[in-house]
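Service request form, structural biology core

Requester: graduate student, group of Dr. S.
Request type: structure prediction, single chain
Budget code: on file
Notes: please return the result as structure tokens.

Sequence provided:
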Amino acid sequence: MPKIINVRNVTVVGFELSGTQEEIAEMRPEWTARFLEKASQIPGQTDSHLLDICLKRAGQLYTHCIGMEVTQIDIIPTGMTSLTVPAGSYVLLEFFGSEQEIPFAFRTILQWARDHKVRLDKNEFRITVTLEEKYRHLYWRLADKQSEAAEEAV
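Core staff response, request fulfilled:
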């Protein structure tokens, strides 16, 4: 069952990729393998949990980052980028299942949010944290009421 939690700022180093949902799904295994090959070059790792972050959506184009949390940014390996996951309220779903089932699990969050009248981030800012092979935490950021109000006023 999904639940709302507060998340602190999280600094991440990893590879950024863009494309349609289908293109990202095709690229994900290769980019994940590339990341895991270079992960040992990232200093200040907090744990070895793989993060797949949907940073934004613009029409049918999505931007993702495959990376891991770090304590600080000293060195960024070639080809990688750094970013900060903003603190805030997120819906969390503990998920047991295959990677192919993740989109369906996010739909569970979406349906739960509709049923509970919870507004989710319209840019689909979502995070998948792989804790074990088939055990993941799925996060979907809640809508920011201030930015929504400003957008409606413009």
